[in-house]
Amino acid sequence: MRLLKFRKLDYIxxxxxxxxxxxxxxxEVSFFTIIKILVIxxxxxxxxxxxxxxxxxxxKKKNN
Length: 64
What we know:
mainly alpha
């Protein structure tokens, strides 16, 4: 069984997107709130990063 090669850029982009959206919505921003948001944003960024990897991997197979 071959391991899938995932693009790290997808995870980084999704992580920055989710954390940025949550931080911008806050009126008062404390240091601990930002740390909590950055930790919590790992989960959706992993999910959406994995989904985009599967989508682009599927498109590459169809093109070859």
